[in-house]
Fold this protein.
Amino acid sequence: MRSTLDELIAELAELKALVASIDPVNAALAGHTDTVVQRYVSIRRRFDYAAFVVALYASFEKFVENLINAYVRLEAGRLDYAALPKKLTDKHLAGTAELLRRVQRGDSRYVGLSELGVVKNLYECLSGVSPYELNEAVVIAHDANLRASEVDTLFGAVGIEPMCDRACRADALVAWYCAAQGLDTPPQDGVKRTVLEERLTDIVERRNQVAHRGGNPLNLLGGAEMSEAVAFVEGLATSIFGLVVGRYLETHHAASIGRIELVLRDGDGPFRGRTVVVVEQPAQKLFVGQPVFVIVESTGARWGRIQSLRVDNVDVQELPESASTSTGVGVGLGFRFPKSADAKLVALAADDDVVWSPLGVASAPAARKVIAGR
């Protein structure tokens, strides 16, 4: 699941490079006397814009579809088919019939898809066979572009709702909004949903305009506006990712036998911008680099690794099970501990590579401080 955001961030980095190149390249070519070059400069801007809006929307759509598929595969490995969300099993049943009709009609989106395989998957799902395989093309199926309402519908079908309302309160989207508006203090209730709806609709409509008008789009975005559109998609996608990860951590780890719940000491911190907490000594071993997370129901999860441990004013690399302290354990986090009263800090005894990047991979999304949750 982690790779879905990795891939999107890489694609957005390329779009940022494209945007950054537009003005310097045009300036370098502006004084060229060759008429062919002059004509190239005059039309390049339109085609740069067309490529930009198509690629930006396509990257976001692919991210959403891949993330949903990755999450559902994990849930299918944990739950019997009958225990999946009813919206999902209803969509899977009705959608499989529609998928077969489209395959028979020769829909180009499903070239190479085996009708027999599709039917076999559905039969085994309905028959209670374990393990089973969902028809993934049905799970992510949508006939409308990904405006906010369609994003809500797709994630609602897999049991995560209301996605866009919750994303509006998540760190990454709030950080984007503050940067875009020049705000020093984030809005108390997060980003207004209308802002998300309008921004996402604008990207969808610009993409559709290019698709229908080809190389003659109207109302081109300038470089600064293009950069802001990329930043919005990155903030929204990162927030969505954090919400999905939050649900995964909740169902797979928060209540598991192997979890290590770190209980904060009353009246003792957090400190250093809420990145250091003091916890009661757990019965299990703690160590620097250990995966740790906190879930806030309304907005998702923050996660990372233990950055430092301090016991009796001494920094240590690990705290054995046999250790004893009455002053608590100072735990440095790779993220800010939220202010929410219901937030619970949990450590894992071992890595889960569904969420955590390998140690030493500094650029991994899991190490970011603006994932989700406030």
In short: The two ends are 22 Å apart (CA to CA). The beta strands are 259-262, 276-279, 286-287, 291-296, 300-311, 314-316, 318-319, 329-333, 344-348. Residues 362-374 have pLDDT under 50 and may be disordered.
